[in-house]
Design brief:
11 helices; nucleotide-binding; alpha/beta; 3 domains; elongated; HATPase_C_sf; about 425 residues; 3-stranded mixed beta sheet; Heat Shock Protein 90; transmembrane helix; 8 strands; ATP-binding
Length: about 425
């Protein structure tokens, strides 16, 4: 039930609340005796006021019930009306006519409740709204045919028993127009809600596509970087395998044959890597021609940040054992974290930690966020790039928001 209530737009909930309050308020301002004077009923006339209050309360909750259970709300609206009509029918009037209301008078608050319920029902379906519209028109028809009067708030009463047929038709049409206007307003509200929801869905879908585009572009850049690193090592393997027969003495023919196969496989792998790189580089971006930065160049990033006026603390560490791929990713993580810190918290102190770990590296960057209230960090292009690079090597990146923004990356060596 909670999920269904969340799906209902706020404007329709407000409409139901207004209808309930209006029905109860008008009912309390209407003097109503549901029994015919001088008619004996199964209930004592002394209960009339209580029965009237109960019926008014039931009608007041009808718009609220229509939010979740429209058919139950329809029964709640009609059952008190029909029961009161039946128990107050006069002997000379056939009971069948009680369906149109043979009581002395019917409070117009019934029409108010059913009209608001019909407006709420528009959100569910046209069939629900039509059912409430019929329930609205039944008492109106009884009034126009002279079977009952309408009680208005503050003691007023209107009766069409002695009116002409033409005037009754005009009255019926006027009540129908009022209902039509109410349903038209509800339909406009429904269309507005659907339009807003479609706009939200399109915006969400657009953001998802943008994130996917950023991630795909970053994966392509990462693949190019990794290609350069892997191609370098594979080419070294090929060169060493090809030159081994000339640099190593007493090499057996079998070993020379194995080395020749290794060199051949290495050249094949390089050709395949070049083919993959050609596909990845089909973009407007020109490929970088400079060597890829490694972990031992993180110190250069720190010095550049300090030269730009940043308060960066870093304890130098021996990062020579960090593998090229892990070192390059660590370099990019530190670079992006320092850029974000300068952009969002200029002048705030920054702490950088780099720890080598079995060929991999652990990187942590901490900086104070002056304007951060502890809410979730929205990942843009830079943070998405960080995550893609780290996870591509099987690592883990965590970003913790709060008074301090903590970027923690655990980057393993290749193949671990």
């Amino acid at each position: 039930m909670t999920e269904r209530l969340r799906d209902i737009p706020r404007r329709f909930i407000a409409l139901a609340v207004i209808g309930a309050v209006a029905t109860w308020y008008l009912g309390q301002r209407t003097w109503w005796n549901p029994w015919l004077e001088g008619t004996e009923n199964s209930l004592s006339p002394g209960w009339a006021e209580l029965v009237g209050d109960v019926a008014t309360l039931v009608w007041a909750v009808v718009p609220l019930v229509a939010l979740l259970r429209p058919w139950l709300a329809l029964c709640a609206a009609l059952v008190p009306y029909l029961l009161l009509c039946v128990v107050s029918v006069q002997d000379e009037i056939p009971v069948i006519w009680a369906l149109l209301g043979s009581g002395r008078a019917v409070p117009i608050t019934l029409l108010v409740a059913v009209a608001f319920a019909a407006m709420v029902g528009v959100w569910h379906s046209k069939r629900v709204a039509a059912a409430f519209a019929v329930a609205y028109l039944v008492p109106v028809a009884g009034y126009c045919l002279g079977f009952h009067a309408f009680l208005l708030p503050f003691g007023d009463q209107v009766d069409s028993q002695y009116a002409t047929v033409g005037s009754n038709l005009v009255t019926f049409a006027a009540y129908g127009v009022v209902l039509g206007i109410a349903l038209g307003i509800a339909e406009l509200l429904r269309r507005g809600v659907l339009k807003d929801r479609r706009a939200e869905e399109l915006e969400t879908r657009s953001k998802e596509m943008e994130r996917e585009s950023i991630a795909s572009a970053e994966r392509a850049r990462l693949a190019r970087d990794l290609h350069d690193v892997v191609a370098h090592h594979v080419s070294l393997i090929a060169v060493r395998a090809e030159t081994a027969p000339y640099t190593v003495d007493d090499l057996s023919p079998a070993a020379a044959g194995v080395l020749e196969e290794i060199a051949s496989d290495s050249r094949t792998a390089l050709d395949e890597l070049r083919g993959v790189l050609g596909v990845l580089r089909r973009s407007d971006e020109a490929p970088a021609l400079s060597p890829l930065p490694q972990a031992d160049q993180i110190g250069d990033l720190i010095e550049q940040a300090r030269a730009a006026g940043g308060d960066v603390s870093w304890q130098p560490a021996d990062l020579s054992a960090v593998t090229p791929s892990a070192g390059h990713v660590a370099y990019r993580v530190v670079q992006e974290a320092l850029t974000n810190a300068r952009r969002h918290s200029p002048g705030a102190p920054i702490q950088v930690l780099t720890l080598p770990a079995n060929g991999g590296i652990v990187v942590q960057i901490v900086n104070r966020q002056e304007e951060n209230d502890g809410t979730e960090v929205v990942e843009g292009r830079g943070l998405v790039g960080m995550r893609e690079r780290v996870e591509a090597l099987g690592g883990v990146l965590t970003i913790t928001a709060g008074p301090e923004l903590v970027v923690h990356a655990e980057i393993p060596a290749e193949g671990r």
